[in-house]
């Protein structure tokens, strides 16, 4: 570089620094300026020999990130200093110890968090990206500023990505849409979220982006004219009331227009709400709410509102801290237009997120609770190793993009939940202990099922019981990440307890067959029963799926010494690969078809005989409904086998312990006092059995009953039937 160019560059750097101080949103004291100057000098020195891909001096990047942090997000001097230093430890000889010595523990901690995030392996694979995202959140160190500066860093990288290779652009843009835009949304940085989404679209789908960008540009003049016309109608009324205000148009982002075009399958011209009108008014804190509703009444005096589209985020702010009144009115030229009414304070919070909260509510504990709660929730979810990383990210995004509802506790406290939440979600949002011991729920004083969808304004009371515990069906009722993670964790613990009992039972059973309990025999058992892990084996023994009969079958196959000897010579012993894996295989119920039992095909269970795992079954190829599976003693079996023998496929259940199946049993006997109580007690004392329906009739001292049960497999059902037969007074128990 020539001397003149270096001089010009240095001048630019100095100018950028001055601008950084000038545009800072927070009031900077003399000490703050000293801290920022020192951080700036250190960054200039550290990056003096580095250049970006575009050829400009590297120092422009940390300064640009600091400017975003200072003005667009509005953070304090500590954050500005950390932003200036964010790449120093990673890319230059400076150490973390030196940073701590020069700038103190807080700045060093933030820089350390940012360095850890940057050093995560970037990968195109979504599951690895998700895992990195989880690790990234773990580096928070209870300091949200790490994430905020990282978002600012990503925004500047996205703004200056033109010099990169196309494949790299797509990769970084995809990661931005997958991870960083949702995070900016969650922290309440709506402007930055919008820009990240638009830039993400620019690099992932350039043609789509450019087309919408051009169309917006073309329609800008028409939009401005429309906003002027709208303003003219209400200006007199607003001025008559002495409001100090401004009316602005806010165009919808390219990304959200594109999303609307896709979701509603419409063209650009058919997207009506391509912009919103924002009325920002000046007021003292005590008048804020009153003024908002006054402006609302002025707007609706002139324009007809759509009552279903009123959004009152002033009485109940969003969990991100967002406050505003949104109304949709029929504007000039018969067009629906969204009007957003906000005070200056609300507007700053909408644009700068939590930084604006801190400015307006310094020292007010209430305001910090929102961010604290978010961090605690994150921490809880992160520390739960049961949750798969992709599920975690998807649930995280699901929870933050979903619309919110507000429900009340019996004491009248307000709780915010995602739309679609159920009483179970509510229970877990209060406390894990309440969630796991939920027995039922009352909504507005009426008993409701746990799957009941809550609505804003509902008052929810959770009924708990010491004996209540989660079951698999709860996963169908819970929608929030927190509730689902806790339920999965609890179910896993319960299965492990059963597996522990099963291990003890198996030790005794093997002993009686004179088989040693060691790794070799456990491996043989796992292979023999077509399982995957030793925990699978112990669990199935614990629930009675692998009973004495099956252990005897295994023992006899093993004791035939000559056959075993020949087998071992002919083929290598099979080793269960995942034998020691600490998991119980889920959804391992499997039907195999064909003579050699080696085909897994799609099938449906026949409704005429309701087969359940463990039953003797066969497959029947129907003309239009694929393979139907029938019990061998199904009423229709003989007719099917004789008339359509060529359509019959042999079938067998190789394992069954996970899913729930319906089975109906019939009972007859002599009626006596307390018999029904005895029957239900016997059933409920059995493991993993649920009664869905009970019907008893008594006539002249004889009773008949029909009970619908939900069971895992036919071993459990057989156990129940044999136990019921032993009850005094019962004559016959059969399965329907």
Automatic annotation (TrEMBL):
Residues 403-464 form the TGS domain. It comes from the Bacteria. Pathway: Purine metabolism. Keywords: Transferase. Residues 58-158 form the HD domain. It is an enzyme of class 2 (transferase). Its EC number is 2.7.6.5. One of its GO terms (molecular function) is GTP diphosphokinase activity. CDD domains: HDc, NT_Rel-Spo_like, TGS_RSH. PROSITE patterns: HD, TGS. Pfam families: ACT_4, HD_4, RelA_AH_RIS, RelA_SpoT, TGS. In eubacteria ppGpp (guanosine 3'-diphosphate 5'-diphosphate) is a mediator of the stringent response that coordinates a variety of cellular activities in response to changes in nutritional abundance. Belongs to the relA/spoT family. This is Bifunctional (P)ppGpp synthetase/guanosine-3',5'-bis(Diphosphate) 3'-pyrophosphohydrolase. It comes from Autumnicola edwardsiae. The lineage of its organism: Bacteria, Pseudomonadati, Bacteroidota, Flavobacteriia, Flavobacteriales.
């Amino acid at each position: 570089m020539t001397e003149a160019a270096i001089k010009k560059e240095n001048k630019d750097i100095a100018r950028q620094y001055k601008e950084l101080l000038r545009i800072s949103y927070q009031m900077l004291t003399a000490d703050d300026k000293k801290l920022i100057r020192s951080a700036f000098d250190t960054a200039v020195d550290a990056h003096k020999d580095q250049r970006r891909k575009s050829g400009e001096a590297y120092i422009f990047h940390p300064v640009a990130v600091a400017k975003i942090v200072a003005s667009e997000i509005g953070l304090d001097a500590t954050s500005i200093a950390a932003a200036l230093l964010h790449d120093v430890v990673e890319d230059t000889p400076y150490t973390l110890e030196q940073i701590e010595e020069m700038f103190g523990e807080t700045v060093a901690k933030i820089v350390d968090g940012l360095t850890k995030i940057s050093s995560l392996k970037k990968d195109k694979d979504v599951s690895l990206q998700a895992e990195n995202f989880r690790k990234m959140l773990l580096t928070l160190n209870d300091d949200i500023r790490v994430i905020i500066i990282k978002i600012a860093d990503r925004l500047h990288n996205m703004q200056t990505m033109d010099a990169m290779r196309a494949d790299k652009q797509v990769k970084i843009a995809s990661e931005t849409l997958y991870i960083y835009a949702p995070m900016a949304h969650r922290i309440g940085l709506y402007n930055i979220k919008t820009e990240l989404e638009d830039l993400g679209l620019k690099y992932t789908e350039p043609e789509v982006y450019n087309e919408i960008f051009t169309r917006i540009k073309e329609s800008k003049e028409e939009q401005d004219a429309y906003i002027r016309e709208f303003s003219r109608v209400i200006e007199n009324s607003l001025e008559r009331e002495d409001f100090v205000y401004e009316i602005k148009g806010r165009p919808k982002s390219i990304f959200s227009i594109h999303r609307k075009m896709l979701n509603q399958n419409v063209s650009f011209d058919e997207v009506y709400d391509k912009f919103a009108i924002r009325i920002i008014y000046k007021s003292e804190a005590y008048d804020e709410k009153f003024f908002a509703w006054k402006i609302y009444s002025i707007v609706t005096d002139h324009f007809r509102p759509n009552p279903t589209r009123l959004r009152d985020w002033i009485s109940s702010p969003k969990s991100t801290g967002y406050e505003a009144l949104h109304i949709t009115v029929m504007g000039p030229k018969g067009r629906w237009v969204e009007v957003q009414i906000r005070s200056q304070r609300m507007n700053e919070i909408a644009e700068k997120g939590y930084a604006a909260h801190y400015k307006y509510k310094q020292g007010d504990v209430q305001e910090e609770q929102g961010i604290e709660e978010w961090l605690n929730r994150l921490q809880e979810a992160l520390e739960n190793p049961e949750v798969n990383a992709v599920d975690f990210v998807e649930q995280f995004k699901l929870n933050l993009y979903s619309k919110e509802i507000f429900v009340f506790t019996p004491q009248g406290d307000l709780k915010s939940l995602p739309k679609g939440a159920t009483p179970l979600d509510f229970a877990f949002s209060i406390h894990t202990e309440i969630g796991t011991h939920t027995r039922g729920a009352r909504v507005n004083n009426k008993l409701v099922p746990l799957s009941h969808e809550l609505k804003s304004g509902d008052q929810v009371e959770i009924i708990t019981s010491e004996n209540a515990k989660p079951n698999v069906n709860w996963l169908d009722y819970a929608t929030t990440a927190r509730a689902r993670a806790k339920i999965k964790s609890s179910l896993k613990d319960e299965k492990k307890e059963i597996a522990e009992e099963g291990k003890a039972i198996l030790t005794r059973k093997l002993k009686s067959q004179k088989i040693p309990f060691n790794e070799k025999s456990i491996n043989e058992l796992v292979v023999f029963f077509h399982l995957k892990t030793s925990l699978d084996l112990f669990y199935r023994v614990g629930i009675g799926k692998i009973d004495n009969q099956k252990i005897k079958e295994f023992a006899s196959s093993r004791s035939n010494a000559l056959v075993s000897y020949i087998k071992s010579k002919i083929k290598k012993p099979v080793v269960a690969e995942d034998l020691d894996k600490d998991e119980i295989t889920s959804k391992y119920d499997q039907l195999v078809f064909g003579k050699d039992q080696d085909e897994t095909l799609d099938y449906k269970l026949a409704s005429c005989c309701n087969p359940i795992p463990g039953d003797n079954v066969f497959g029947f190829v129907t003309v239009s409904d694929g393979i139907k599976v029938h019990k061998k003693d199904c009423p229709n079996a003989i007719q099917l086998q004789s008339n359509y023998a060529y359509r019959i496929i042999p079938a067998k259940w190789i394992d069954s312990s996970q899913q729930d199946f319906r089975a109906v049993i019939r009972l007859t006997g002599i009626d006596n006092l307390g018999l029904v109580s005895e029957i239900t007690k016997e059933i409920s004392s059995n493991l993993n059995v649920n009664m869905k329906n009970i019907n008893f009739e008594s006539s002249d001292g004889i009773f008949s009953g029909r009970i619908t049960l939900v069971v895992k497999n036919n071993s459990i059902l057989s156990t129940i039937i044999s136990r019921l037969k032993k009850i005094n007074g019962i004559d016959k128990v059969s399965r329907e």
